[in-house]
Amino acid sequence: MATIPKLLSFTTTITTTTTRTTLSFPLHLRLRRRSFSSSVSAASAAISVGSKLPDSTFSYIDAYDEVKTVTVNDLTANKKAVLFAVPGAFTPTCSQKHLPGFVENAGKLREKGVDVIACVAVNDAFVLKAWKKDIGIGDEVLLLSDGNGDFTRAIGAELDLSDKPVGLGVRSRRYSMVVEDGVVKLLNLEEGGAFTSSGAEDILKAL
């Protein structure tokens, strides 16, 4: 079980050639839009504010190119953690807006008492390491692989894009949450891949 450094520090060395695709698509399931502080109904997700997250295991590549694992408990025990999810690494909205917003606001989030900032994606750890290098970020955000989608399924946040021509398959809906000791304190679950209220600024306003 990995030990989480305070707002994490490691570098990347992997490069890849990637095809960038746009997540502009109709929703697979039509769900009612909700505000940041609202809970999510059982019909749309398995979690809501006050829920205990499953102690799922994520993976990442460290500075020595070794695969490491970390659990939800590691990330949140006696800590205030911000977890946010993106539908896919290297996709435009995720690369240009969602992830960079948390990188740019990492300092402000720390001032609000946030200990860990982590991005979850249904991509493998090697893709996420390459994405980190491509964007050029440092230790502001930990990129976590939910490669098999176990955590995403457990919280009811699957996004089925199997019918899209770019081959995304089943990914995660976009969301952001504040978690303390494994318990969801704030939650914003977007409609599919939309990006309207799950950014770093929304978290800052709610803290």
Quick structural summary:
The protein has 207 residues and is an alpha/beta fold.
Overall SS class: alpha/beta
The order of strands across the largest sheet is 5-4-3-8-9
What is the average of the pLDDT values?
81
Radius of gyration from CA coordinates? 16 Å
**Largest sheet geometry:** 5 strands, mixed
Q: How many individual β-strands? A: 9
N-to-C series of helices and strands = EEHEHHEHEHEEEEH
- Overall shape: it is globular
User: What is the rounded distance between the termini?
Assistant: 30 Å
Uncertain ranges: 1-44
Q: Beta fraction of the residues?
A: 15-25%
Task: Identify the quaternary structure here.
Answer: single chain
Tally of alpha and pi helices:
6
What percent of the residues sit in helical stretches (DSSP H or I)?
10-25%
